[in-house]
Design a protein that fits this description.
Layout: H1 3-11, H2 26-45, H3 52-126, H4 130-203, H5 207-234, H6 249-253, E1 265-268, E2 271-275, E3 280-284, E4 287-290, E5 296-297, E6 303-311, E7 315-321, E8 326-336, E9 343-344, E10 351-353, E11 363-370, E12 373-375
Antiparallel strand pairs: 1-4, 2-3, 4-11, 5-10, 6-7, 6-9, 7-8, 8-10, 8-11, 11-12
């Protein structure tokens, strides 16, 4: 039997193709659905007269969702790159194992063809007893079983190579799709940012628009107070050591020594503030801290996230319960990285600074509450 014949025999071995199912992309799909719902909502509004502030609020929501989608797409791309690396390593190893098996099977077939039948007759002629013949037959059976096993292993390795190659190509295609989607989303995001800037420029000195913004914020304050009251009414006494948010003593000890939730400077203080355009006084229940774009926001004390929402006049908002009836509020977030029920500490990042709803640029709105009584956050910070 020639080496060509050996290759033909091997090529006729059946190869199985295994296509693994793609892992779920829940976060990605959820964000896409949220964007679709918002786009539909905006489309339904287009037949009605909308103020500039209304348009800004819608654009802010869309920008936040698209940034979240970009983050999810980036995570998906990295996951695909990791899958591709792992599959490539597995494929290289499997091909090495296949080459070694193919060489072994090939050498055995050549030996069988050249010497097998002649050696068998020569061996039979030398046997002098039935016992020797039985031993020889057992030995031949073991050789045949070993040859079958090697052929089976070779078949499995070739099937494995096919499956890994298919999986690798699929992951490469998906990665390319993610890259294209990321590029498209980045372009859409940039367009929406330009649109928002144009809208913001219109209202800086527009008294009616500024009044609407202030009214939206006043309503947001009311909703925050209502939510805190709801959390207080739903809270249950816990066994000692079982209250995740703590008893508030740690939070109280931080008064005047609390770390800032984000690095920056206060551009809008707590309390009554005079609006230079409207020539009226308005009340700020927190402070507005101007910071760098996308700066990380961390809670000043351990606690539990009780509310993650989006509000007119406050954008993306997070409420954290620190125990002992103490709460902190974070508004204008560019992106939220926590969910309701998430346990956080001073090393946690709950989100990033955004410029949703603020005329100061990238700004964090920060509040401190003791029950339903708002506090001056400046007296708590170091």
């Amino acid at each position: 039997m020639s080496r060509l014949s050996i290759s033909v025999i091997i090529s006729f071995i059946c190869i199985l193709t295994i296509t693994p199912s793609a892992p779920g992309q829940t976060a990605l799909e959820k964000t896409r659905r949220e964007i679709e719902r918002l786009e539909k909502e905006i489309k339904n509004k287009q037949n009605r007269e909308r103020t500039v502030v209304d348009q800004i609020e819608d654009v802010n929501r869309e920008i936040g969702l698209r940034k979240k989608l970009l983050k999810n797409l980036d995570a998906e791309r990295k996951r695909k790159e990791r899958d591709i690396r792992n599959t490539t390593i597995q494929l290289q190893q499997t091909r090495k194992e296949e080459a070694a098996l193919k060489n072994l099977v090939g050498r055995r077939m050549v030996t069988m063809y050249k010497h097998g039948r002649k050696s068998d007759w020569e061996m039979l002629l030398t046997l002098t007893s039935v016992n020797q013949m039985l031993v020889w037959m057992k030995y031949q059976k073991l050789i045949i079983e070993n040859d079958k096993r090697n052929l089976r292993l070779l078949n499995e390795k070739q099937a494995e190579i096919e499956a890994q190659t298919t999986r690798l190509q699929k992951d490469l295609n998906l990665k390319e799709q993610v890259i294209i989607a990321t590029r498209d989303e980045a372009n859409k995001l940039e367009n929406r940012r330009s649109s928002r800037q144009s809208l913001l420029n219109k209202i800086r000195n527009d008294a009616s628009a500024l009044r609407q913004q202030l009214e939206d914020r006043r309503k947001a304050y009311s909703q925050i107070a209502q939510r805190i009251q709801r959390e207080r009414s739903q809270s249950r006494p816990e066994a000692p050591g079982q209250n995740i948010a703590g008893d508030g003593k740690q939070f109280l000890r931080l008064k005047g020594k609390m770390n800032w939730p984000v690095t920056g400077k206060i551009v809008n203080n707590y309390g009554r503030q005079r609006n230079p355009v409207l020539k009226t006084e308005t009340e700020n229940l927190g402070i507005d801290i101007k910071s760098l774009p996308n700066a990380a926001i961390s809670p000043p004390c351990p606690g539990v996230v009780k509310w993650v929402t989006w509000q007119r006049g406050m954008g993306n908002l997070v409420l954290v319960d620190h125990g002992g009836d103490y709460y902190t509020v974070y508004g204008y977030l560019d992106m939220v990285l926590v969910d309701t029920g998430t346990e956080v500490d001073t090393e946690s990042i709950i989100g990033h600074v955004g410029d949703q709803g603020s005329l100061y640029g990238p700004t964090l709105h920060f509040e401190v509450w003791n029950g339903t009584r708002h506090q001056n956050p400046s007296t708590w910070l170091r």
